[in-house]
Specification:
Structural class of chain A: alpha/beta
Strand order of the largest sheet of chain A: 1-8-7-6-5-2-3-4
Radius of gyration of chain A: 18 Å
CATH architecture of chain A: 3-Layer(aba) Sandwich
Number of strands of chain A: 8
Distance between the termini of chain A: 43 Å
CATH class of chain A: Alpha Beta
CATH superfamily of chain A: Nicotinate-nucleotide-dimethylbenzimidazole phosphoribosyltransferase (CobT), large domain
Number of domains of chain A: 1
Oligomer: homodimer
Helix content of chain A: 25-40%
CATH topology of chain A: Rossmann fold
Order of helices and strands of chain A: EEHHEEHEHHHHEHEHHEHHH
Number of helices of chain A: 13
Chain lengths: 345, 345
């Protein structure tokens, strides 16, 4: 059964699945992100996602990362896809406060600030350069690199940079009901603090990241830049669409596309397709069929909860092109969730 | 001109140069290590080596790492070889206290203890498992992986684990005159603290690492284990010979050899050749010809100062098999040293 649209024709010989993990205090604004049951736990979510994907254990967080609606982290789908394909993953920390207890690449930097109150990513330039260096190395080893993300609050900073670049768009949410009013208010407050206007940074994308972005962005951008010559697939929804827009503004060239989920494509409150099409980059989406899960909190992904994250859509695409049947991915996702080891209380 | 002995016939397509960076308080025992001008600075030496190789800048240490005799860190030779071959490097932190300001892989763990006073590597098992996980990933990407090290004090812990495994041998030193008496005393004190005897841990190599080793060892061992199926070349002198011995005791199999410098081969106070030959593993050594340097502190490498470190011998081998003339490596080494950027005072 076909479950990737349109066809992804390239068959990588040595694929690598990267996932940038970062924190931003913007994600702690109450009501903004569903990644982490409480604002305090959001700092631990990306590290816990890394632990789940690398070892199927949660080590540094007291519980499985989940949304307030009770859906588990999309890392379970990513883990399932990587289990079934044996494709290696590598987590890349960029401005990450709580480090995972599994191997990861450290790019440095401090956690991102609440963009309403302070410069979002003071060390954006350094993170961009360090990620470029890493990208150059990986370009010699892999012929196709997927780049996902895990950062709570990232859709709001995505909205902020898109507006700073002049895009009149909206972004998705990990909530089923997108808190667009709150997001827009945060962006307006941040613009007012930074003294910028919609479109005023279209020629200074790194300043947009620094002022109103998050630390995932300079890492993904630097990787894209360093990986020139290798096929790059951004794995994510509107956050990665924002990275694509920033990359275009920076003049980053190469074989760059984006892969996400059907749930993002169906999100009427967000403009994923418009942004990507305006940039002239190919996009792909997978329909992982999670309504067929035996576990209700996983089934409701298909109703628009969670939607994306930890490169879930790209990982599902990798499973599909490696011949994994869709029902097998759902089955393995359920298995991952049923067997994940949690810290003893 | 031939400057690698014997011939290294494999021509890797996607080589990767790893370097494990770690700390041990054993290296702070006065008179034991020449890596870092003062015992206090030894914690910064591995990170500074990483910074030098990745960016030709020293960022987190106040000065270029050097030996008391005034010789600069062997990282300059490694950097020169990687510059000339464009082979990617990746530094891997394992029990590292002072982190570099460049991208690196973090395996976790705390700095190693003074083996006379405490268990050397309390988290050896975790580091071994994490490194195994990393090795498995890299095995899918590279067809030949070199593993070097930078850890001040590592030859003493190497001596300790070799004796715990039952090898009646000696190890090299970064000093021109090997402080063998002091090293043996440290090992005896450590054995007495841990309640072990020469050879008493020959069937429990991970306990040897835990009790009297350093955090570089479980990382190098785990990488070797995870990399099964990929060609592995340990790049170092007697420290890597100790890793080879530990790997044999652990039953780690694969295409594993060791590459070092002529300066290690000529060290009459150490038993590099005996250890490696007894294990039946191929060894190679390069003669980088540093007596032809225009810079006296580099020339004296050829008189037995420094000898090895940061995978210098293996990096020189990579240069040679990639057709770099020996005089070009010396010239580039001088160039690296003359142009390295130091922190502003």
């Amino acid at each position: 059964m076909k479950w990737i649209y349109p066809d992804f024709e390239f068959r990588p010989k040595r694929p690598l699945f990267l996932c940038v993990i970062s924190n931003t205090d913007t994600g702690k604004i109450p009501g903004l992100s569903a990644a982490g049951t409480t604002p305090e736990l959001t700092d631990y979510t990306p590290g816990a996602d890394a632990e789940l994907v690398e070892t199927n254990k949660i080590i540094t967080m007291p519980e499985l990362p989940e949304a307030p609606g009770g859906s588990p982290t999309p890392a379970i789908v990513t883990k399932a896809a990587l289990n079934l394909t044996k494709i290696p993953s590598l987590f890349v920390a960029s401005g990450l406060r709580k480090k995972p207890a599994v191997p990861y690449v450290e790019l440095g930097g401090v956690g991102g600030n609440d963009i309403r109150k302070q410069t979002g990513v003071p060390d954006a330039k350094m993170l961009y350069e360090n990620a470029t260096l890493l990208g150059k190395k990986l370009a010699t080893l892999s012929d196709c690199i997927f780049i996902g993300e895990s950062i709570a609050g990232g859709t709001t900073t995505a909205l902020a940079v898109l507006k700073a670049l002049g895009y009149d768009v909206n972004v998705s949410s990990s909530f089923a009901t997108n808190p667009t009013g709150l997001k827009t208010q945060v962006v307006m407050d941040a613009f007012s603090r930074a003294g910028i206007k919609e479109g005023s940074l279209k020629n200074d994308p790194l300043r947009a990241v620094t002022e109103v972005g998050d630390p995932m962005m300079p890492a993904a951008l630097g990787l894209m830049r360093g990986l020139a010559g290798t096929k790059v697939v951004l794995a994510g929804g509107t956050q990665m669409a924002a990275v694509l827009a920033l990359g275009a503004a920076l003049g980053i060239e190469g074989d760059i596309s984006i892969a996400t989920t059907k749930y993002i494509m169906e999100d009427k409150t967000a403009n994923f397709k418009e942004i990507v099409e305006s940039l002239g980059r190919p996009y792909y989406y997978s329909d992982p069929g999670l309504e067929n899960s035996k576990i209700p909190p996983v089934q409701i992904y298909a109703q628009g909860y969670v939607k994306e994250g930890v490169g879930m859509g790209g990982a599902a695409l990798l499973a599909a092109i490696n011949g994994v049947p869709r029902e097998k991915l759902v089955e393995e996702t359920d298995h991952v969730l049923m067997t994940v080891e949690l810290p003893k209380k």
